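Q: Joint fold for the lines below.
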Amino acid sequence: MSTSSGTPESWISSFCSLLGHEYFAEVSEEFIEDDFNLTGLQNQVAMYKEALEMILDVEPEEDDDDDEEEEEDEEDISGDVRDGPGGRERRHHSRVASDLSVIESSAEMLYGLIHQRFICSRAGIQQMSEKYDLGHFGVCPRTNCNQTRTLPVGLSDIPGEDTVKLFCPSCLDVYVPPNSRFQTVDGAFFGRTFGALFLLTFPEYDLSRSGAETASTLGRSADELTMVNGMYARNIAPGLGRGKIYEPKIYGFRVSELARSGPRMRWLRDKPDDVTVLDEARRFAEEHGAESDDDDESMVNNNNRPVASARRRRPAGNPTLRQRQGLNGSPMNVDANGAESEL
Amino acid sequence: MDDYGTESDSDYTSYWRDWFISSRGNEYFCEIDEEYLTDRFNLTGLNTEVQYYQYALDLVTDVFDLDCDDEMRETIEKSARHLYGLVHARYIVTTRGLAKMLEKYKKADFGKCPRVMCNSHPLLPMGLSDIPNLKPVKLYCARCEDIYNPKSSRHASIDGAYFGTSFHNILFQVYPALIPAKSAERYVPRVYGFKVHAAAALVRWQNGVRDDMRRRLRKMEVESGFKDGEDDLDDDEEEDDPEEDEEQLALVRRDPALGAGPSGAYGGDAQMGSVA
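A: Joint structure:
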């Protein structure tokens, strides 16, 4: 039903190429046309139907007859659309300029909200990973993060609350984008989930690489693939910990913690030297003997160190393979290279 | 001393220092007092550091009157900027220098902290080394006590030694009232409202480190500077209010595939692998 073939550029791609919209992925039409993906949005967006038509480049019909016909077509895909605010009556007015600008802003809002959902879907997160590879989202401003690539995130899922922020996987902190043009982009269009979900979906990105270098995956050595808490140990906040914390000095002497102006925020950039102490489940199991159940054991055994309580040792073999199998149990798991994208 | 301002013919001003600090990219510098510049004691050792030291100094103090070709003038100009920077590093830790930099700090002339939780706290320029030509200037946020790269490449190419490693720390020693309140507020990565296990475990560990520090300080009767009182030390470890939990539940209902659920003893962290 798309009529975009006649136009040189779809609304979606022209929206994404606007200045300040560099972070947006192009939501596929199939995703928007699937009614399930739009559940609940008609209550959040004024002139929902018109906005949706604009996004999908469906030509607004001036003629009433055509209008009806088209509306019937659309009923299949967008069910209870007509309950939406500003619904039916409006459609029978011929569109005036002010109307159009309202629809335009509604369309942007709707697109943003769909985008929030899309980038958490397989196809969407894959597209975002391509943008991440190309460094579209900028790098962390923190000196000790050494130009780690960042991810766009929102601090709220509700539109109108805050602008888009950048999440740095290296220091697990959020930053204001350097360019002021992003200060008009709503954070809800990216949502709170995307940043963390991205790291879980693509655990094999080598986060210690700087944005200037080509993005790559972790090496294959067993040491690099040690798992802690469901993530590769190397990828747990690589920008934090000893040597990555700023130490205030005056004429070469460190400022004491006991000074009024002494360091108070080191904890924020700290990390245990040995990240395996963060594996609370394993430590609990060690302290409390063999009480851990089987579920826990899969986690416990992901460390290549002896576990006091482990009843059976993992058979010798390729640890990588076993971990990969473990990960495949997750509904959101996508192969790091997207080879098995199913959408 | 007529047309020394060859670099910016239109921007001709009567003093070299005026021209220097008002030219683009030099916003971080403050103006060094003439008396400070003319006191030889303050320049001790710089003659070995700066090429054409005497000419450069003449240029900076507006008594330059050498007749030379453009190439030579360019070299001297460069030396003058280097000299100014090195004197600047010494000047800004003096009483007058600190006061001038403080004014600029209050106006946020050095930019604002990019960290969201710092709420645009003003930054201070600093160097990672006192030796010139090693590290470019960085920006220090007194609120999160971390250092950041300047946004613009114009500033990123300024030598850090022109500000030095001590200035920003001395500023807060001299003006302790200006030390901003510290905050334990931080970003916690979440997936559909659930904390991510790996990150949440690190946050718990970091909170432990922070609480240890606060206990240490309390024992020594030193003010910790955190804005939330000392007393709630033990309460702030897990701030999971019921409202938040409800919100999480509501969000999970939207995507049942991810509602793998909180895993008992270790707090409701969404975790990869636990489903397997």
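Q: Anything notable?
A: The CA atoms of residues 192 and 274 of chain A lie 29 Å apart. Chain A touches chain B through 72 residues (CB under 8 Å).
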